[in-house]
Amino acid sequence: MLSETETHRRYREQITRYVSRDPYARHLGIRLVELGEGTAVAEVDVREEMLNAHGTTHGAVIFALADFAFAAACNSYGRPCVALSMNVQYMAPSGKGARLRAVATEKKKTARAGFYQIEVEHDGESIALLDAVAYRKSGFFLEEIGQNAANEE
């Protein structure tokens, strides 16, 4: 059976396409920029309709960007993962025209859980910091990975 590192390397393109088709992220204009083993980088350009009443980026948009980067990072091994918890600290405002970048980094993973930190930044300034925990399900979300894993046993 392939290790998770080998699975990521062999199926990186397919996994990238799979996580990039997230309908809500696409609706918001969120783009997956990089996908590594347990890591991901995503970006969004803040539009007028993404602002709150104060004229700054709505917290829900910042959270959605971070959540997408987290989802990409924890699913980067081809195993289905879902969020158990996320804690967010908003540290600075941004506004219309800002390009926000979320960087998700795996801190530790076990057979059933993954622990991640996600930083959202704009022009080198931290906008938000999130800590997240993922539940790691068994199996694979792409049929070809599952079939090849079964054949290699």
TrEMBL record:
Annotated Pfam families: 4HBT
InterPro entries with a match to the protein in the record: Acyl-CoA_thioesterase_PaaI, HotDog_dom_sf, PAAI_dom, Thioestr_dom
Statement: the UniProt record of this protein carries the keyword Hydrolase: yes
GO molecular-function term, one example from the UniProt record: acyl-CoA hydrolase activity
Domain Thioesterase: 54-124
Keywords: Hydrolase
Superkingdom classification of source: Bacteria
Coiled coil: none
Protein name (Swiss-Prot/TrEMBL): Acyl-CoA thioesterase
Upper classification of the organism: Bacteria, Bacillati, Bacillota, Bacilli, Bacillales
